[in-house]
Write a structure and sequence with these properties.
Length: about 325
């Protein structure tokens, strides 16, 4: 099959779409406001994107298996509420941190049981646990905001070698996830399952165990993302974590992760996707845009992410050679 020049250009553009958009968006906002390219503002974008990128990293593991986890925002909320209550009751910081991560993993394990054991469709299972977690968090807080102690705020403002703690956390999570997906048999099994679950099962891959593991990882990353976020905010409001699942999915898909499974990478894809979303949010604030258009812009981002994923999948199907077997009577 001979590829034309325009076809090759389209293929390259789709392959590097997230990078091209990531370069175009800052250029547009820098024209709207000179303050956008200030060093402090760029550092602020990196710090603020840490939470979304961490949650999107966990979401990537689930998406690669052709699943989805809509409960990550609720995991952030419930975990943050529990950590806040422990800290306010005078419990040590390490206990609050351990509790928030344990809750995330348990939440992910429950999702995994629903999906892998009970065979509930991931969308339905995690949609149900999304509402359950949101209701549980509102019940625990009585729909009141919780102001957290200084010990948690110090985490968000801490820095090592001049690099803020959220950035260190992001680098660690993204680095470990990248190594797992690219250098381990577990990572290869995730991609194999996402490409063809039946073929992977016949090849000896324990698909149920893979499903269980990826949802636990997603829950852990959601809880950790929640910890990073409350350490910056210093409070847990009744709307904390609300709709963060859509930001995580958008970041992953904008970074090249397929909603159909089997394709995508944490580096640089998901990281660029998270930075792109935070760059747009920050740029709208710097440009003094009407706050009422923020949801409209986010809806366009989600639409763009899904459209790019659909186009990439269509391009991939066209590039695969068709095998025609002879017919025997």
């Amino acid at each position: 099959m001979i590829e034309t020049g325009s076809g090759k250009l389209s293929r390259v553009s789709l392959r590097y779409s997230s990078t091209l958009i990531f370069l175009a968006v800052p250029a547009i906002f820098s024209l709207l406001s000179p303050r956008f390219l200030a060093v402090n503002n760029l550092v602020n974008i990196l710090i603020q994107s840490a939470s979304t990128a961490i949650v999107a990293t966990g979401m990537t593991f689930v998406l690669l298996t052709a699943g989805i986890d809509l409960s990550v925002g609720s995991v952030m909320f419930v975990s943050a509420v529990l950590a806040g209550k422990l800290a306010l009751n005078g419990q040590p910081l390490w206990l609050a941190t351990a509790a928030i991560l344990l809750v995330g993993m348990l939440y992910g394990a429950f999702n995994a049981i629903c999906v892998a054991r009970l065979r509930i469709i991931p969308f339905i299972a995690t949609l149900a646990t999304l509402y359950f977690g949101r209701g549980l968090g509102l019940w625990l807080t009585e729909t009141r905001a919780m102001n957290l102690p200084e010990s948690i705020l110090r985490i968000g403002s801490a820095s090592i070698a001049g690099i803020p703690f959220p950035v260190w956390t992001l680098a660690f999570v993204v680095g470990v996830a990248h190594l797992i997906l690219t250098r381990t048999s577990f990572g290869r099994q995730i991609y194999a399952m996402g490409n063809d679950a039946d073929a992977a099962r016949k090849a000896g891959v324990r698909t149920d165990r893979i499903k269980f593991a990826v949802y636990v990882i997603s829950g852990f990353c959601a809880a950790l993302g929640g910890l990073v976020s409350i350490a910056q905010l210093g409070a847990v409001s009744p709307t904390f974590g609300n709709q963060r699942e859509f930001a995580a999915i958008s970041a992953a898909v904008l970074g090249g992760v397929s909603l159909f499974g089997g394709r995508g990478a944490v580096l640089p894809g998901v990281l660029l996707g998270a930075l792109l979303i935070q760059t747009i949010e920050n740029g709208l604030v710097i440009a003094n845009a009407d706050p009422y258009i923020y949801p409209l812009v986010m809806s366009l981002i989600i639409f763009l992410a899904v459209m790019l994923d659909s186009l990439r999948n269509r391009m991939l199907r066209r590039s695969q050679p068709r095998i025609i077997r002879p017919f025997h009577e």
